[in-house]
Write a structure and sequence with these properties.
The complex is a heterodimer. By secondary structure, chain A is an alpha/beta fold. Helix content of chain A is about 35%, strand content about 15%. Chain B starts with 6 loop residues before the first helix and ends with a helix.
Chain lengths: ~325, ~725
């Protein structure tokens, strides 16, 4: 509210170490890309000194959705495809919390697709991480909407029949989209930078994280993993600025203005090389929770009176206890 | 000067030096209606469209000129018409009529004056006019007080700006107080609900309602629940919260309605007409203000659940007159004082100085109606032009942390943003405004105020300490005309003796400003064209040269039925003009125009450069060095030097580690995570070469390099070295 109070708060602010954000021991397979995402997020929490009691991770179902268990913050392991409605409810009731959503390609792009589209349109201030390993891993290898055509799985033994859905172009096609980024789990520095930029964006930040599944699709990303030239790094003065180390290693680069949505859609359509960085950012899109804010706090008494008036409209009164009509 | 003087010139020089004309040449009528030549064309103000009158309303656009509103109405009412012509014509007539009414002393809201003017126009019986005005009246959306540029303008204008800023500020504070009160009440409410009392059979019954009360045994329920009841808030905390709540509820600085409106205390007033009264009120309220600031800080901590007794008790327990909560004090409403310059003396001056220098959040408007006061020390016609207004402004400038604005009323509309900025400034602000309503002239106040600006008698400037760290960003002189000149220069056109169009460039000096004031007519002697001669020079030229007894300074005035005269100026007035120019020069220097320090530095550097160029004629051109670094590849220059590493030692490209646990599962003593949870080789001797190779092979991103075996006796080395080769 004012700087003096902020100073007082900072005086007793506890600094947290990365370990303070570690919850249970991850049950993910060794070598799984989820670990890289978990590390990046724990680093973010430490660097931004997020108070664990002011931070919440919401997830649906799938490997990725075990995420809240491994964070020592608030968490909500929801039901399949419904991470976003839950997160929106949390944000609406507690706008002071930092809300993160961890979801997978099956959870978000298949059963949860309707919620995903509308969450983009609502543009509530939260960060969504789409852990996209292009397969249903928890249920042992079924094709997901993002599996590339021809992917052999238990449900598509002769190879999947449909072209993979591109979560980036879908998101960029929805009204009110305000932040879209893509990153790969095997470049931890950029993963962290993108998660950080998404956290600082006010609005619905959508990050698609292309992630390896060493158990079910062990060779899927090897060509990209071992050829840095097949990753297209997006950089711009208004977006990511690359460190010299990264810049030396990944030579395929593109200067991309994150304010240009048409160019963003074009870049997002490319799959080889994989575009990595911030595709689109528009801080001026209003957040749903702000537009719906009543603008005035209500006291407990006002809430009680208001609720009772609403209930009274629908109450069926016993004949002998019908109240006198309200003056209003 | 070699030519001999004729008698006309002699008497003109005599007037210039002594301020008196020979009796025979004294005009029968004093030059009462003289008007500076430049203003002559603008005397009939109501017929002209300009910034005034203005309509003062609330909200973002708190001030709008009548002409802009009329334009808007023409646009809105005329969209359905094929021909805008008649409507435009009628509305412009209405606008003129409104101006005339105001000039005649009418006042009120825009709607009321509009209706009065419309009645006058319709009285002519023209049906077309009536239809146009009806249509326009329906399209008129704006309303508010209609104020012309007169004595009442500065107070109304600044008052409105203050009000707009304060409204927003008070609303913010009220919302915060309300939020804190609700937060604290909720803490107490939650505590009550969980306490033993809150779980009594009566409370439980009341909370369930009547429908199902018969099916519950509230005594049993209460017994069960009471075993879980917690001890409640610690008494010191409860006391603290209740104390803070009481302060927040009883405050009188802003209107923050509570649940119980009947007990909302009456708010303080913040508008004053004397600095002394404002200062007294501020002093009286200061303890309450500090108490509120402290309560707000404690409440904020409590509501966020961040109050730590051990840390914060010591802070808030300090003595009552500490400086804590200064930021919260800044959230309280500011004081507004509107005081006429004539009253700023004695105790009032002391109070004003104290308000400004002590950082009291007061916005003080000092309104001067007359700049041409004679000095109280020497009543010999020594002009003390706007001396006190200038003194006030320069004193406030000297304080360095006070927002200062000086402007004639005619410029207020154009400087509305500056006025608003001053009102929103986080500290004291002084607005020194010249209204132009001096009474010494027949010209309308707007023209007098504008003339004061043009003649540098009352220059406009703002000093905004919040705009930056230095004078260049804080001090703004740009509202003045032709800031780089001594006097602004304009062209006048007139008809000469032969009825031909003649043009002349004239500069508007301080003498022109005085020429419009009848009280000082004796300092000027208008001379007809027949008596004009070569020794006469315009005042601005006269001032530029060295004093010369042979030259006669004059200004061009229009008098005697629109005839152009040259008015010979007496020496006192010329001296006053010179002082006025000096004051303007000082302001120019502050504003970075013809700054003597800068010019001196520039001259020195220019000399040094010339000397350097002369000494080394074959030196490399200055642009060459700048081009050199650009030719080096930027990427390579920025790349860090490669680390010196022993090729035999195993290592991990830690930056690229994806925390997949592969290596740490092989050997936790050999592989470990750093503070960013990325792997590095903690101890190369804590495991075997076989483990290093195994880790390198299983690493998903191939960033583990096994190096050379540490133990030459390790079994199967040949095979291991072969496997390690791809990871070298």
């Amino acid at each position: 509210m004012n700087t003096a109070t902020e100073c007082l708060l900072r005086m007793v602010d506890e600094q947290h170490a990365l370990e303070d954000y570690q919850g249970g021991v991850p049950r993910w397979c060794t070598g799984c890309g989820d670990n890289a995402i978990l590390t990046a997020v724990q680093r973010l929490c430490r660097d931004e000194n997020l108070h664990p009691e002011k931070t919440v991770f919401v997830s649906g179902i799938g490997c990725s959705s075990r995420f809240p268990h491994y964070m020592r913050t608030y968490g909500f392991h929801g039901i399949h495809g419904r991470a976003l409605p839950l997160a929106e409810g949390v944000k609406m009731a507690r706008p002071d919390l930092h809300v993160f959503v961890n979801t997978g390609d099956g959870d978000c792009c298949s059963i949860g697709a309707a919620h995903w589209i509308h969450a983009v349109r609502y543009n509530m201030n939260m960060t969504l991480m789409l852990h996209d390993n292009q397969v249903y891993g928890l249920t042992k290898k079924q094709a997901s909407p993002t599996s590339p055509i021809g992917t052999r799985t238990n449900t598509s033994p002769r190879g999947s029949y449909l072209e993979a859905l591109n979560p980036l172009t879908v998101t960029l096609g929805v009204q009110n989209v305000s932040f879209v980024a893509q990153v790969v789990d095997w470049i931890p520095e950029l993963l962290f930078d993108v998660v950080k930029a998404a956290f600082h964006h006010k609005g619905f930040s959508f990050i698609r994280i292309i992630q390896r599944c060493p158990e079910w699709l062990p060779h899927m990303h090897e060509p990209w993993l071992h050829d840095p030239g097949r990753v297209l790094l997006l950089h711009h003065a208004k977006a990511l600025q690359l460190s010299s180390g990264i810049s030396m290693l990944y030579r395929t680069q593109l200067e991309h203005d994150p304010g240009d949505i048409h160019r963003a859609r074009e870049v997002a359509s490319g799959t080889d090389p994989i575009p990595v960085g911030i595709l689109y950012r528009n801080p001026d899109v209003p957040c749903y929770e702000d537009t719906r804010h009543a603008g005035r706090l209500r006291t407990a008494a006002e809430l009680r009176t208001g609720l009772e008036q609403e209930f009274d409209k629908y109450t069926v009164w016993p004949e002998d206890r019908v109240p006198a009509p309200a003056d209003a | 000067m070699t030519a001999t003087l004729d008698s006309t010139q002699q008497s003109q020089i005599a007037f210039h030096l002594a301020g008196r004309l020979p009796d025979a040449e004294r005009p029968q009528q004093p030059a009462a209606a003289a008007c500076p030549a430049l203003l002559a064309g603008r005397r009939e103000l109501p017929a002209l469209r300009y910034d005034f009158p203005v309509v003062l309303a609330s909200g973002e656009r708190f001030v709008r000129p009548l002409s802009a509103i009329i334009d808007e109405v023409i646009h809105a009412a005329g969209t359905e018409l094929q021909d805008h012509g008649p409507l435009t014509h009628h509305l412009l007539r209405l606008e003129r009529e409104i101006r005339s009414l105001l000039a005649a002393g009418e006042h009120g809201t825009l709607a009321s004056v509009w209706d009065g003017a419309a009645r006058l126009l319709v009285a002519g019986g023209d049906a077309e006019v009536e239809a146009s005005l009806d249509r326009a009246r329906r399209a008129l959306k704006a309303d508010g007080d209609l104020v012309d540029c007169d004595r009442s303008l500065p107070g109304a204008f600044a008052g409105r700006a203050w009000h707009v800023v304060q409204e927003a500020k008070s609303a913010r504070l009220a919302a915060d107080l309300r939020r804190l009160i609700i937060g604290l009440t909720n803490i107490l409410g939650a505590d009550r609900a969980q306490s033993r009392g809150g779980r009594s059979p009566e409370r439980l019954r009341a909370s369930l309602g009547q429908t199902y009360e018969s099916v519950f045994d509230f005594d049993a329920l209460s017994r069960v629940l009471s075993t879980q009841a917690h001890g409640g808030l610690a008494p010191p905390r409860r006391e603290r919260i209740e104390g803070v709540l009481a302060v927040l509820r009883a405050q009188r600085f802003v209107h923050a309605p509570s649940d119980d409106d009947a007990h909302t205390p009456r708010g303080y007033g913040f508008e004053f007409t004397s600095c002394t009264d404002a200062l007294t009120a501020y002093r009286e309220r200061l303890p309450r203000a500090r108490e509120l600031a402290r309560a707000v800080a404690v409440a904020e901590l409590e509501v966020r659940g961040e109050y730590r007794d051990g840390v914060h008790d010591a802070l808030f327990g300090a003595s009552a007159d500490d400086d804590f909560g200064r930021d919260t004090l800044a959230l309280l409403p500011d004081y507004f004082v509107s005081v006429p310059m004539a009253r700023v003396h004695g105790e009032e001056t002391d109070s004003l100085m104290e308000l400004l220098s002590a950082g009291v959040p007061a916005k003080v408007l000092v309104q001067a109606d007359d700049l041409l006061e004679e000095s109280t020390v020497a009543r010999d016609g020594h002009f003390a032009v706007g001396m006190r207004a200038r003194q006030l402004a320069s004193m406030a400038l000297g304080l360095a942390d006070v927002f200062v604005m000086q402007a004639p009323a005619s410029l207020l509309y154009q400087m509305r943003e500056a006025v608003r900025r001053g009102m929103a400034f986080d500290g004291p602000a002084l607005f020194s405004v010249f209204s132009g309503a001096s009474g010494g002239t027949t010209l309308p106040p707007f023209l007098v105020a504008a003339a004061a600006l043009e003649s540098r008698a009352f220059p406009a400037f703002t000093f905004d300490p919040s705009a930056g760290p230095n004078w260049a960003s804080r001090f703004d002189l740009s509202a003045n005309p032709q800031t780089d000149r001594d006097w602004p220069s304009y062209e006048i056109a007139y008809e000469d003796d032969g009825h031909r169009l003649a043009r002349e460039q004239v500069e508007f000096t301080f003498v022109d400003f005085v020429a419009a004031d009848v009280r000082h007519a004796s300092h000027l002697a208008p001379v007809k064209r027949a008596a004009w001669n070569d020794r006469m020079v315009p005042v601005h030229e006269y001032l530029r040269g060295t004093p010369d007894a042979g030259r006669i300074p004059f200004v061009s005035v229009v008098t005697d039925g629109d005839v152009l005269y040259r008015a010979v100026t007496d020496d006192r007035l010329v001296r006053a003009a010179r002082r006025c120019r000096e004051a303007w020069h000082s302001l120019q220097e502050l504003g970075g125009i013809h700054n003597s320090h800068a010019e001196r530095l520039l001259a020195r550097e220019a000399t040094a450069m010339a000397a350097a160029a002369a000494a080394a004629p074959t030196a490399v051109p200055a642009t060459a060095p700048a081009a050199m670094p650009a030719s080096a590849p930027a990427g390579e220059a920025a790349a860090p030097a490669a680390e010196e590493r022993d090729p035999d030692l195993p290592y991990i490209e830690t930056m690229r580690c994806t925390t997949c646990n592969e290596c740490t599962q092989v050997n936790t003593k050999m592989f470990a995570y750093n503070e960013n949870k990325q792997a590095y080789i903690k101890d190369p001797d804590a495991g075997t070469f076989a483990q290093l190779v195994e880790a390198a092979e299983s690493c998903q991103v191939s960033i583990i390099h096994p190096g050379k075996p540490r133990n030459p006796g390790e079994p199967g080395l040949a095979e291991l070295l072969k496997r390690a080769a791809p990871f070298a």
